Each structure stands twice: as structure tokens, then as C-alpha cells.
Amino acid sequence: MAKLKLRGKDLIEIGYPQKGKAISIAIDVMLKNFRRERKDKVLQRLKTILKNPEKYLGDGIVGKIAEELTTPVHVEAQQLATTRAPFTIFGENGIADEAKHQLYTALKLPIAKAGALMPDGHSGYGLPIGGVLAAKDAVIPYGVGVDIGCRMCLSMYDIPASYIDGHRDKYVNMLQEHTKFGSYETHKRINDHEIFERSEFKDIPTVKKLFKKAYTQLGSSGGGNHFVEFGIVEISDEHNEFNMPVGTYLGILSHSGSRGLGANIAKHYTKLAMQQTPLPGEAKNLAWLDLNTHDGQEYWLAMNLAGDYASACHHDIHKRLGKALGARPIAMVENHHNFAWKEMVYGEELVVHRKGATPAQKGVLGIIPGSMTAPGFIVRGTGNKHSLQSASHGAGRQLSRRKAKQTITQSDIKKQLKDCGVTLIGGGIDEAPMAYKNIHQVMSNQTELVEVVGTFTPKIVRME
DNA sequence: ATGTAC
What we know:
The chain has 464 residues and is an alpha+beta fold. The chain is 34% helix and 23% strand. The protein has 16 helices and 17 strands. It has helices spanning 8-13, 22-33, 39-51, 63-70, 97-107, 141-144, 163-166, 168-178, 200-203, 205-208, 211-217, 259-276, 294-325, 401-407, 410-420, 439-444, and strands at residues 87-89, 112-122, 129-135, 138-139, 151-157, 227-235, 247-256, 289-290, 331-336, 338-345, 348-355, 357-359, 365-368, 376-381, 390-392, 423-425, 450-462. The strands form 4 sheets. Strands 5, 6, 7, 9, 13, 14, 16 and 17 form an 8-stranded mixed β-sheet that branches. Strand 10 and strand 11 form a beta hairpin. It binds one DNA strand of 6 nucleotides through residues 125, 145-148, 150, 183-184, 213, 222-226, 257-260, 262-264, 266-267, 338.
């Protein structure tokens, strides 16, 4: 197959403007997508686009050419403001300075309108973990995080929680057989899911390339702090949304995200953002995409796909375990905690980034995990304006992974697990319960943000 | 977080 050769001269001949970047963008797009087509056919395509570029705006492949011909994106070095957008920090005494400074930097972005830091806040890449940032008409890929749509999912069963103790081996086996951890492990038989019908997999070249990976990774959990666990749900609020009598139940709790799909989407669009909005040193990872541009709109679609895919993965995990358990859940609670949403903030529609923060609009349910030996909380948001209607996404790290490995021993963990009656499958030292802050302290720092509906106490935990 | 690196 002859390889396509396109030169600037060819495009000038058919009328492409020499001013601006139309020619270089067009050559780039054509070489990437129509490498095997005949040159005259490709030039004909380019002519058609040039004649009526408006018609091709939003097209996944040639939309970027059309954009350059109609409303070119201006790349310019961005400066930070000298003042910060308004913000509130919850549980300030428990948060390291570095995380606060990361928020302060983000609040000086020209697109920043408001921010907040949750009481589990700690240092991250770009926006701190526990950071919330409201921006105008723009989305920051690293404000969402690398694991787009990282989320929690809890299923509650009408099975006595005490059942676990008599059948530990059975539950351990279920997790070993029906959950997949690590970079490589996937299920032998993939369940089909409607997510794979989504048009984004056809329309966006970057996403199209990730289809196969997404397909094979469905229902897998990955690594890092991701887990699947059996535990005891205790419903304490008698006016709970599930109409469940106060008491204890068996629960399955999972924590994971969008696997390779989201990671590669994040990587691709962060690179584009860094090219389009170059920022000074300490802020460079906060580069954004204008939502009125081709790339910005494409990221938004891809991000939402990754979020739905993460949800599909959790549902697949719970479906497999429910089947093994031979039971249907009475109720489920789930929420993203790495994502961006368009929300009204002080009367204005803004893009609210939550990077390790639980959505907590009034009446909205969510899950805030503790650690493998501390309870997590089923919560109901209060819609607090100062947190931009958010809460923490967990206890938060107290020790960095490196520090945890240096100071915690395997026997420390063993003792802690035994004291709490927890069986652990996998799990490195960096995920030790002692590496996390005290969840009760964190919860006491966010009583204005969420109400407690119940708790989930882990009993059988599987990690990478 | 991620087949850990343009």
C-alpha cells in the first residue's frame, strides 16, 4: 500500500490559507486518518472541507481542520493572577501545606472562579487530592485526575452480616474467583455491556483506539488503592432513602475507575491542554482545554464515556459477585469522586472539578470509605455552598507511599488486621490502614457537608 | 492511576 504523501504546496494549490495553522493541522489529520487513501481523494476531501468548514465542525476526525478554518484556537502563554478566587478549606489543621499551596496555585488560574479543599486533602499532581475547583468554560484534565471516573459502589443485601464469620473461606474464594486485580489480569469471559455501543468509540479516533482495551478490561479493578470487599453495613438513619430498617446487613463495596481507557484519555488530552494553555512552572499541570474548542468538547465527551465505563465496571463486578452470592441487592449507592460536572455555582454555570471529592448536593447519597480496618460512611449531602457541594472521598493519606513503606512493617499490618477481624487478600504496605488519616477525625471536620446514613465495616478485603 | 518512557 502506497503511503500518502502530502505537502504544504499541495494544500496551497487547492486554496488553503498560508496564514495560521490550517495547513499543518490538515496534513497532520490526513496523515493520521487517511494514510492509505489516494492523494487525489484526500485532496478532494480537503477541498470539500475548505468550501464549507461549518458543516464539519464537531466531526471527530476533520473537525479540528474545520475549527482552524472558521474559529482558530489561539495558543498563548497564560499568566497566573496575583489574587486567589474565593475558597474554603475544611479541616485545615489536618492538611499538609503542600496540598494547600497546590489549591492556592489553582485558584490563581484565569479560569478559576471558586475552590475548596476537603478534610482528607493531600498533595497530588496538578490539583491536590481532595481539591474542588470551579472554572469558567474550561476543563482541566489534571483537575479530574488520571483515573477519570474513579468511584465507589456499594451493594447491600438482605443477608445477616454475621454470616461472614461462619463462612470466611467461601467469601475469600468468591473474591479470588470473581475479581481481577493488577495491570494485566482480566476476566476470561467478558460480559457484554451497552457501553460498548456508544458512538464515542466510533467518532473519536483517540477513543476508538482504546475500544479493545476497554472491552477486555471490563469488570477488572486495577491497582493502587483500588479494592473490592465484603463487609457489614449498618444502617443508622431510620429515615433512609432505601426504606431499610435500622440494623446490619451484608455489603459489597468496590473502589476503582476507568482502567486503561480513562488513563489514556487523560494522557492524550493533558498533552493537548499543555500545548494550548502553557502555564508557568508550578501551574503547568493545571493546563486546561477551552470547552468551546474542538479538543475541549472532545475531552468532555471522552471524559463522560470514561465515567460511564467506570460505572459499568463496578456494575459488572457487583453482578459477578451477586451471582456467586446467589442474591439480589436491596439497594445500591454509588458516586464518582474524580470527575468534572457542569453545575450552578453562585448563580453561574461553571465546570466543577472534583479530584478526590464526593459530590454532596442536598439529598445526594455517596460513600466515603475509611480504610481496610476502619468503617466507611454512607452519606447524604447537605448542599453546602462553601465546599461547592462536596465532601471528602475517604480518610486521605497520612503517609506518602514511600514513607509508608519505610515506617510500617508487615507485622504491624498483620496485628491490626487481626484486631479488627479483617481478612486481607493482596494489599501492599503502602495501602496499610496506618498510612491513612483517622476517618472519624475527617468525618468530624465535615459535619456541615454530609449527614451519616450508615456505615460499612470491611471484613474480607481484596486489593492488588 | 497506567502495559510505569517521546
